Amino acid sequence: MDEDSIAPDITRFEALAHEALADMPEAFRAQLGALIVHVEDFAEDAVLKDMGIADPFGLTGLYVGVPLTEGSVMDPSTEPARVFLYRRPILDEWAARGDVGLTELIAHVLIHEIGHHFGWSDEAMDRMLEED
């Protein structure tokens, strides 16, 4: 059966996220350090509240950590950087759009969140995508 025709459970979704990460160029992955990718069905209520998001389907991913542009060898972070992918909102977007494969959408959200690890703002990433 086609990977992009059925909604995967959380275990398969996480495997797809890690496959997307593994498919990224080595030079890119080498800059990620100990970045950890988590998959959850939805963001925690406290996260949504902190971000001012009322609808849990409104957040597909989140970067948590100190961006490389803000890190310091004099004051290293004690926690590894983390990317959260939220399965149900991503599945909802995939179903609503109908014009993109799920593996492609997972990779897109993952790359977007990793962009924050490199210190890129949402606005800067939007501009880069418009230039593409």
Explain what the structure shows.
The protein is mostly helical. The chain has a single domain, classed as 2-Layer Sandwich (Zincin-like). It has 6 helices and 3 strands; from the N terminus they run ααβαββααα. Strands 1-3-2 form a 3-stranded mixed beta sheet. Helix 1 packs across helix 5.
**Helix and strand succession?**
HHEHEEHHH
User: What would CATH call the class?
Assistant: Alpha Beta
CATH-level-2 architecture: 2-Layer Sandwich
Number of domains: 1
Residue fraction in strands = 5-15%
Measure the end-to-end span. Answer: 32 Å
Strand order of the largest sheet: 1-3-2
The main β sheet shows up as: 3 strands, mixed
CATH topology assignment:
Zincin-like
CA-based shape: globular
pLDDT average, as an integer? Answer: 85
DSSP strand count = 3
Ranges where pLDDT stays below 50 over 5 or more residues in a row are none
Number of helices, counting only DSSP H or I runs of 4 residues or more: 6
Structural class: mainly alpha
Radius of gyration: 15 Å
Helical percentage: 40-55%
